[in-house]
């Protein structure tokens, strides 16, 4: 780990427990500390308690926009404003939905710092995260 | 020349036996004339006074009539007038010894063809009648021509209005532009299909046509050579609401040069909507297939990754979880195949007489183990005599399996499921009442949509394809039945299924 001496904690929120566990294993193997939650509600509870260094949130959980709502709630907190929050989704151009966080306006509107496509390619994710932590 | 004509007329008379009416009060003259004319080939009838003359002359279509001017009862001029009124094509001659200029004028005015002064010689009479008959033939011919012409005109007018009615009735817009780029014909559908509310004249209509159509028309008008091809283009007239397809074709002159362009504008909105629904469905299916595949792929990658160092126990857990995901993927694929088969109506149906009680009983038996695990009890209530229905056993079994397994899956621990079977005059009615988690109003509306699954804190961990109730609805619809849902969130849900009773057996 080149980015910092302190171990970073990542909050993963996904209602698909299989994918949640897989991502947890993969990220832990790269030296991150991972906490998980299975719903938007639980996600916010864990966020408030743990104050992670980064959050990755699945978009569609209990409701179709649970991910956005959680994102919004996190970004409204003081701690949330300081950390990067990513939305995880398989809703892409291919599946007929369009999400983008390319521009500042889009990020403002969606209240997240980036969109990650499912399934996660962990190496890509790690390099993205390292970029963030290096800054 | 004159003689030739005369001979021809004589022959004609012999051939066609003209019918002549002689109206004269003088018996000798009547009989003499009759004998003379019959020898010449005429068919003769006589009337001995005016009254009889009017009666015969108006009731029959005589070719010719010779009317004596002076008769004791009715004046010859009146007889003439009555006959001409009823039979305008009967050629009438007036015969009289009291010829005067006034009567000649009057008889001509009343439609008499000629005037035979009495006494006349046989030759004089025959000559006059020949002339009269020639006139009669001409009159009939011209009347025939007139009738034909009128019939033709009528037909033409009918044809035109029929054609124009047909073109106006069709849903496709039809527009014809001449070589000068002017609108020379348009039906009403042009306005409707292009959403043009008003155009005072054809010039204004032209200015309101979509650019894409103008471009296609200009292709033809701007080309030096005759373009023989048709072109088509799709245009979105109102966003998401009105789509049309415009097809342009050249209209050639007989000499092969361009006379103008015909444009047919078809409303393809329904087609576009179906296309959209299809695309959305494919997207949803892709999404639903991708998730379990990604989960299994993720597990397999972790299992074979030497660097991750997972425990034996974890590995076994991941394999079983992969199997679960693949199983549900298989269920999903099977559900999808069922839906597609049912939609295509290719499913082979075997329509038999079914006892619904038996089907429900065996379905309940299958679900019993699953229900007992969570202490859920079944309670069957049946009317004494439930009518039988005619349907495919597999479909009806599938219908109740989906409904009842939902009632188990979405029930609470120690809940119950009550199944009431009854009927009214037209329907077999099955009510499935569960004490489950219930539905919010929002969910109730979307319940039968493909892939719709209620997501809340209670439904986590309940597996399903999101197609179960879609299939139920399809089966019910295919039998012209109906399904109703009542629900109280947190209390339970009641599905009521109506299947038509076949009264014909």
How many domain modules of chain B? 4
Shape of chain B: elongated
CATH topology group of the largest domain in chain B: Heat Shock Protein 90
Main sheet: strands, sense, barrel of chain B: 5 strands, parallel
Number of strands of chain A: 5
Low-pLDDT residue intervals, each spanning 5 or more residues of chain B = none
Order of helices and strands of chain A: EHEHEHHEHEH
CATH H-level superfamily of the domain at 9-99 in chain A: Response regulator
Instruction: Tell me the strand order in the biggest sheet of chain A.
Output: 2-1-3-4-5
Distance between the termini of chain B: 91 Å
Counting DSSP H or I runs of 4 or more residues, the number of helices of chain B is 15
Strand content of chain B: 15-25%
What does this entry show, briefly?
Chain A is of the alpha/beta class. Chain A contains six helices and five strands, in the order E-H-E-H-E-H-H-E-H-E-H.
Primary descriptors:
heterodimer; A: 135 residues; alpha/beta; Rossmann fold; 5 strands; 44% helix; globular; B: 505 residues; Beta-Lactamase; Helix Hairpins; 4 domains; five-stranded parallel β-sheet; five-stranded antiparallel β-sheet; 17 strands; elongated
Give your account of this protein's structure.
The complex is a heterodimer of chains A (135) and B (505). Chain A is α/β, with parallel strands linked by helices. Chain A has a domain at 9-99: Response regulator (Rossmann fold, 3-Layer(aba) Sandwich). Helices cover 44% and strands 18% of the residues of chain A. Chain A has a five-stranded parallel beta sheet with strand order 2-1-3-4-5, with helices on both faces. The longest helix of chain A has 13 residues, at 17-29. Chain B is an alpha/beta fold. Chain B has four domains: 2-144, Rossmann fold (3-Layer(aba) Sandwich), CATH 3.40.50.2300; 170-267, PAS domain (Beta-Lactamase); 272-344, Orthogonal Bundle (Helix Hairpins); 351-500, 2-Layer Sandwich (Heat Shock Protein 90). In chain B, 50% of the residues lie in helices and 22% in strands. Chain B is built from 15 helices and 17 strands. Chain B has helices at residues 2-16, 27-39, 50-59, 76-86, 101-109, 122-169, 188-193, 202-208, 211-221, 269-304, 312-344, 356-373, 393-409, 441-446, 468-478; strands spanning 19-23, 43-47, 64-68, 91-96, 114-117, 173-178, 183-186, 231-238, 242-252, 258-267, 351-354, 377-382, 389-392, 416-423, 427-434, 482-488, 492-500. In chain B, a hairpin with a 3-residue loop joins strand 8 (231-238) and strand 9. In chain B, helix 11 runs parallel beside helix 15. The interface between A and B is medium-sized, with 23 and 23 residues.
